[in-house]
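A.,

Following up on our hallway conversation. Structure tokens first:
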């Protein structure tokens, strides 16, 4: 997540999904906040806010709130201030790229420890890395851009003894996005389902350890959003 994305179409989809899934449980959001970059036009997908007839009915309260966020200071703090997504957040920025490469792994270990402490009382956790899932190759931990990712190891820890939702921005992996989603589903140690959302760009939400209620709510969300690039991905 980067603050400059706040209020864009990606936020509308993911926050509406989280509101649907967390209706009866305590949601904790780990933003995986990465410092804002300026080398591309990401985060400018706010045109949906000028089309209320097409988008607002999906979650009117959230739509109106995000219209205010996109028109003001765009940050995770302004998203939190809407008071529509709970009150449990972890937003310590992922700034290890500023460190010498030898110190980045230890820094990330401590950062994730603080995240675990902050999320301890959540019975539904959400991780929002800028790019998404990567494998557990320890060499990644010393790379400057590792802050944009969540490893399988961190995902498994976050999902211990509770459901968790993991954001993943689909890549150019050979075989296409469906095979990419199938691959990640095969890497999880726990039961998981997934939601594909293709409005403006391609993203996937993995729901780990879903109980029957979460599965039902996921299907309801996909049905409601079916005409807006959202669908349930059953897996291979």
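Then the amino acids I'd put at each of the 236 positions:
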């Amino acid at each position: 997540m980067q603050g400059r994305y706040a209020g864009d179409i990606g936020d509308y989809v993911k926050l509406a999904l989280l509101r649907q899934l967390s209706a009866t449980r305590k949601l904790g959001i780990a933003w995986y906040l990465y410092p804002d970059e300026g080398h591309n036009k990401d985060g400018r997908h706010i045109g949906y806010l000028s089309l209320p007839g097409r988008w607002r009915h999906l979650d009117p309260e959230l739509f109106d709130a995000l219209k205010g966020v996109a028109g003001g200071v765009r940050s995770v703090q302004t998203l939190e201030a809407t008071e529509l997504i709970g009150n449990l957040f972890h937003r310590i920025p992922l700034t290890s790229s500023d460190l010498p490469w030898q110190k980045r792994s230890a820094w990330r270990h401590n950062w994730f420890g603080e995240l675990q402490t902050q999320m301890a009382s959540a019975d539904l956790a959400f991780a929002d890395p800028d790019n998404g899932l990567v494998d557990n190759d320890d060499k990644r931990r010393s790379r400057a851009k590792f802050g944009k990712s969540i490893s399988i190891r961190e995902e498994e820890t976050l999902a211990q003894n509770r459901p968790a939702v993991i954001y993943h921005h689909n890549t150019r992996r050979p075989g296409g996005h469906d095979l990419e989603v199938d691959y990640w589903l095969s890497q999880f140690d726990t039961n998981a389902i997934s939601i594909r959302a293709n409005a403006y760009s391609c993203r996937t939400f993995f729901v780990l350890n879903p109980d029957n209620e979460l599965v039902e709510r996921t299907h309801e969300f996909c049905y409601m959003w079916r005409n807006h690039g959202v669908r349930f991905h059953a897996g291979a």
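The radius of gyration is 17 Å. Curious whether your intuition agrees with the design.

B.
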